[in-house]
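example protein:
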Amino acid sequence: RKVAAAGRQLEETTRDARTTAKLKARFALDPELKTREIDIDTDDGRVTLKGRGGSHEEVARAIRMAVEEDDVLEVISTLQVSASGATADELTPPPVHRAPPTATPRP
């Protein structure tokens, strides 16, 4: 029994390592994700993504790619959109519109 359990553990560990390697390769080949620092960890078929994406679309893309991978049971993401990936328009607060002052009549 111990040998069978050890064999299953080795198979799961190998599968997890393969999944992580495949995802790292896919991210490295993706024109947008290859410049991002995304940490990928796989444990018992559960993929955890950590790091930053340049946009909400990039974060969604990374999650989708992980979900589509074989042998993935669950994807846990703590990916955040980095401010450096935002455009200047997204970082500039909208202008504040104030009503012009009105004269108050004196009695």
Remarks:
- Residues 86-93 have pLDDT under 50 and may be disordered.
- The CA atoms of residues 54 and 84 lie 7 Å apart.
- The first strand starts at residue 38 and ends at 43.
